UniProtKB/TrEMBL annotation:
Protein name: Hypoxanthine phosphoribosyltransferase
Record-listed E.C. numbers: 2.4.2.8
GO CC, alphabetical: cytosol
Top EC category: transferase
Keyword Transcription attached: no
Pfam families reported in the protein's UniProt record: Pribosyltran (PF00156)
Family membership noted in the UniProt record: Belongs to the purine/pyrimidine phosphoribosyltransferase family.
UniProt pathway annotation: Purine metabolism; GMP biosynthesis via salvage pathway; GMP from guanine: step 1/1; Purine metabolism; IMP biosynthesis via salvage pathway; IMP from hypoxanthine: step 1/1
CDD domains per record: PRTases_typeI (cd06223)
Length: 183
């Protein structure tokens, strides 16, 4: 298969595949140390976090469990409203569990801030957040993120799970979509 036409839709690469994997190894060592002797349930947020979950979970040299949620924010188009609807709930009971939410990106922070509150209210022993990317200039609410891969500029990015109109999730690195794609 020739993917060069897909790569050509990027105006620039922000994070390479190699940088992503090096960062995940670093985060995995911190997580192993922080959760030593404790159970750990990774909660992935569908669909964007699929790649981070696959690579982070395999970088961890310890037992973990995985569960998944799908959420959608009400509101128009690309602007997050902060009102979140659960499309697919967890299968796990969170009582007494140490939960680590695994996310692709924090933009306004509204989704994650809601999600953390929701999971905490189910009786989890702890709820922390691991995100591959964060846009500090777009944050609308303070979100305490324990593990963050990269802070990036306030631009729309794709790849490594992140989509534009459901495409580009399978790119190995993360980049900025070229204007010719959406203009
Ligand atoms: P928040 O509630 O933090 O504003 O929204 C986070 C969600 O918006 C992410 O999980 C992701 O699905 C989507 N999102 C935010 N920024 C971007 C971006 O730059 N690119 C893509 N593809 N999705 C984004
Ligand atoms: Mg996400
Ligand atoms: Mg999306």
């Amino acid at each position: 298969m020739d993917f060069t036409h897909v790569e050509a839709d990027l105006s620039k690469t922000l994070v390479t595949e190699e940088e992503l994997h090096a960062k995940l190894e670093e985060l995995a060592r911190q997580i192993e140390a922080d959760y030593e002797g404790k159970d750990l349930l990774l909660v992935g947020v569908l669909r964007g976090a699929v790649m981070v979950m696959a690579d982070l979970s395999r970088a961890l040299r310890r037992h973990i469990e995985m569960d998944w949620m799908a959420v959608s924010s009400y509101g128009s188009g690309t602007v997050s409203s902060g009102v979140v609807r659960i499309l697919k709930d967890l299968d796990s009971d969170l009582t007494g569990r140490n939960v680590l939410i695994v996310e692709d990106i924090i933009d306004s922070g509204l989704t994650l801030s809601w999600l953390r509150g929701n999971l905490e209210s189910r009786g989890a022993a702890s709820v922390e957040i691991c995100t591959m990317l964060r846009k500090p200039d777009a944050l609308k609410v303070e979100v305490d993120v324990k593990y963050c891969g990269f802070d990036i500029p306030n631009e729309f990015v794709i790849g490594y799970g992140l989509d534009y109109a459901e495409q580009y999730r399978n790119l190995r690195g993360i980049g900025v979509l070229a204007p010719h794609v959406y203009e």
